[in-house]
Amino acid sequence: MGRAECSCRGAERLASPCLVRRFLPLLVLIIALCYGAHIGQCQVVTPQCRIQKCTTDFVSLTSHLTSAVDGFHTEFCKALRTYSACTQRTAKSCRGNLVFHSAVLGISDLMSQRNCSRDGPTSSTHTEVHPEPCNYHSRTQHTNTYSHLHTHSHAHSHSRPAYLFCGLFGDPHLRTFKDSFQTCKVEGAWPLIDNDYLSVQVTNVPVVPGSSATATNKITIIFKPYEGCTDQRVYQAVTDNLPAAFDDGTVSSGDPIHTFAGADGATGKVRALWISERTPGRHVELHAGYIGVTVIVRQLGHYLTLAVRIPEELAQAYDATQDLQLCLNGCPSRERIDQAGYLPLPRSPPALGLQLQQLRRPSYSSQTQESPYGAMQIFGVEGAKQRCRETLEVQDIYFHSCVFDLLTTGDANFTVAAYSAQKDMESLHPHRDRWRIYPRGSATSALHSDPHSIRRFALLLLCVLSMALM
């Protein structure tokens, strides 16, 4: 009798409480997988809700305003009233949209804070935009806005240009534009980037005799001339010489073109190309606003690290003679130390014992502070992992690179290099969902590195459930 109540037919069977109870864990798992993998089929889409357009218009109307500009209060209130009117027009279709309700509350709070009246003049959302020709973001935003207004095509307009990231650190470890992570030898001078706008070349030297691992001791960056914005500028950094100026002694190039607002409300202008020294002799950033490029150069220990963000369209501007670019195509196969993403850990640091013996000799005693091997220690696998765990919380590829570097060189400075490279990546990489890369073969890799497999697994579960309910 206890099982009779589960005997259901037709449509009644689909609503059977026993089946619901039986498959509830499976349903919960599917929902969780859909949420975690961002599966489009599992999302409720409400294309009629135009709250994003309202928000974009508000940002466009206020992005140029600062508290130091005359009439700031009046213009900001006009923009708020325009924002409010836009939300009212789309209120019906956005009734169940959390973003919409958050925007409505935010508008109310801002009006109260700024003492803006509900009634009054509004801003025009079709004001003519005058681009700054030496500001890449302004230039491309104007082009896309013009395309959208005149073609009425969403397919040909994007609010923000697409950016790519490339990084190099350690022995050396390369993260390409395609988020491929490689460990390479590449001894000598190699081009990372070489296109019509920018050239970046690195020079790598052996770290420890007896090992194929190398590290970067020289970086050369050439910003090519751009008519009306800047002449050619060359920046060169070598170990123990990380200048805060270009080779000609200048720290910027081009006319002041871009207005910015500081934290204190003061306004100012930056040039088309400029250098910012964050830590003297250790951390320099180069900003090329006219092409939307940011470059971070650091010295950690005795070697250099590099991180670059560049618009995709500019990174693709090269000819057949410029195809050897490590950031674009990765390292040649003969220069790879890793095996298709798998980084084998050395059983013991090659020639490290020999180096330590040399350091103990009397002839080395007066050179200990200058020797690149002065920071060497002997690390076992567990000791290296423990040292890297002290700095790197997530055991992704940066953690495994840290362990590899400690085992290979015994130089504890590479721990800080891996940490800084990870932080520079997080500050420049445009896609947060691609930040984490896990080494091939690790347990975490199967879960994080291939979201498509998660989606296929979730869809398979859906199919199994459908068949069970039939």
UniProtKB/TrEMBL annotation:
<dbReference type="GO" id="GO:0098552">
    <property type="term" value="C:side of membrane"/>
</dbReference>
<keyword id="KW-1015">Disulfide bond</keyword>
<keyword id="KW-0325">Glycoprotein</keyword>
<protein>
    <recommendedName>
        <fullName>Repulsive guidance molecule BMP co-receptor b</fullName>
    </recommendedName>
</protein>
<dbReference type="GO" id="GO:0080090">
    <property type="term" value="P:regulation of primary metabolic process"/>
</dbReference>
<keyword id="KW-0732">Signal</keyword>
<keyword id="KW-1003">Cell membrane</keyword>
<dbReference type="GO" id="GO:0030509">
    <property type="term" value="P:BMP signaling pathway"/>
</dbReference>
<dbReference type="GO" id="GO:0010604">
    <property type="term" value="P:positive regulation of macromolecule metabolic process"/>
</dbReference>
<dbReference type="GO" id="GO:0005886">
    <property type="term" value="C:plasma membrane"/>
</dbReference>
<dbReference type="GO" id="GO:0015026">
    <property type="term" value="F:coreceptor activity"/>
</dbReference>
<dbReference type="Pfam" id="PF06534">
    <property type="entry name" value="RGM_C"/>
</dbReference>
<keyword id="KW-0472">Membrane</keyword>
<feature type="domain" description="Repulsive guidance molecule C-terminal">
    <location>
        <begin position="163"/>
        <end position="430"/>
    </location>
</feature>
<dbReference type="Pfam" id="PF06535">
    <property type="entry name" value="RGM_N"/>
</dbReference>
<dbReference type="InterPro" id="IPR040287">
    <property type="entry name" value="RGM"/>
</dbReference>
<dbReference type="InterPro" id="IPR009496">
    <property type="entry name" value="RGM_C"/>
</dbReference>
<dbReference type="InterPro" id="IPR010536">
    <property type="entry name" value="RGM_N"/>
</dbReference>
<keyword id="KW-0068">Autocatalytic cleavage</keyword>
<feature type="domain" description="Repulsive guidance molecule N-terminal">
    <location>
        <begin position="49"/>
        <end position="118"/>
    </location>
</feature>
<keyword id="KW-0336">GPI-anchor</keyword>
<comment type="similarity">
    <text>Belongs to the repulsive guidance molecule (RGM) family.</text>
</comment>
<keyword id="KW-0449">Lipoprotein</keyword>
